[in-house]
Design a protein that fits this description.
14 helices; about 325 residues; mainly alpha; about 0% strand
């Protein structure tokens, strides 16, 4: 059963990548859009693709596994305390990200192109559309896909391996060097918040808050600077010919500040979860009894499948290999 769920999720990942390439292409053909496409239309295409692909595949996964959407995604309310702690974590991730991006841009000058494109996209789009497509849609649809489907499918896999795979999948899907290092870090924090809040609503909140901070600050600064905060900082660094040592020193300051905020609030989230768990010992024991019955029933159903497990153990990762190879090809061709 576990192998089948992993194979299903990995196969749907390849399908998602294919659809993300085809949906905008089909939209351009159907609506006869003329290149170059405006920033607003580009955002609309991106947002529509997220809704259609991530939303559609999430529903498809639930249909195939024959389970309710809210149970697969673990959609539960979070407390007010968990909410504001998560928002504090988002401030820490943004500060930490400044350090990551400064190093990335210094080591890989090719990201200048990515930074400029992102800044131009934000500056050329309307604020309302930007808030919808950049802040709200990714917070919901990316979470149900990456922290919903894959956490469910990889349930029972070693935690470190599971977190690494899901984080790598999430980072690679963004498809550009500018974001990959930062998104690897963000993806890990999103998983931690999802774990400590016990609900995908927690990671959705962090995702939305993080994107909102980045979008609003970039939008405000774009009004005063031609290419936004990151590209302007990059130009200044290049013009001043700042050494790698100086960049590392500046990044270290952001790492210390951002890291301290993240650590403090993640620890509080974990402590809150543990205290909440102790207060519900009786309910937890009842839940454990129920889960034991479910596991026993599933074991009886799948007991006859032992002979095919070795094969399934190998084949379940083939779509994952196809996905990463495809992303490497896409990124290489892009640059």
């Amino acid at each position: 059963m576990k192998n089948k769920k992993i194979l299903l999720a990995n196969s749907l990942l390849v399908l998602a990548l294919l659809l993300f390439i085809l949906v905008p292409f089909w939209a351009i053909k159907i609506f006869k859009l003329v290149r170059p496409i405006s920033e607003n239309v580009s955002l609309l295409l991106s947002g529509s693709a997220s809704v259609i692909v991530f939303g559609g595949i999430a529903l498809l996964y639930c249909l195939i596994t024959k389970r309710k959407f809210k149970n697969v995604m673990v959609i539960k309310k979070i407390s007010i305390k968990q909410l504001y702690l998560t928002i504090f974590v988002s401030f820490g991730t943004y500060i930490f990200a400044i350090g990551i991006n400064s190093i990335t841009m210094k080591l890989f000058p090719v990201v200048i192109k990515d930074s400029t494109q992102i800044s131009n996209l934000l500056s050329g789009s309307t604020t309302l559309l930007g808030l919808l497509v950049v802040v709200l849609l990714p917070a919901f649809f990316e979470e149900i896909f990456f922290r919903g489907i894959f956490l469910d499918a990889y349930d029972g896999v070693n935690k470190k391996i599971k977190y690494f795979i899901i984080t790598a999948i999430f980072a690679a899907f963004h498809g550009n060097v500018m974001q990959i290092m930062y998104v690897m870090f963000l993806g890990f924090i999103l998983l931690m918040v999802r774990e400590y809040t016990g609900s995908i609503v927690g990671s959705m909140t962090l995702h939305a808050a993080n994107n909102a901070i980045s979008f609003i600050l970039s939008k405000v600064l774009v009004n005063y600077m031609n290419n936004g905060i990151e590209s302007s900082a990059l130009k200044s660094a290049q013009e001043a010919n700042i050494s790698i040592a100086s960049v590392l020193l500046q990044a270290s300051i952001f790492f210390l500040i951002g890291g301290a905020i993240i650590y403090t609030n993640l620890r509080k989230l974990k402590e809150y979860k543990e205290s909440e768990g102790r207060a519900k010992v009786i309910n937890q024991e009842e839940t454990n009894k129920y889960l034991k019955n479910v596991v026993r029933e599933e074991y009886m159903v799948i007991g006859g499948e032992k002979s095919s497990r070795k094969v399934a153990g190998l084949t379940k990762y083939i779509p994952l290999v196809i996905y990463f190879v495809s992303m490497v090809v896409i990124v290489v061709n892009k640059y």
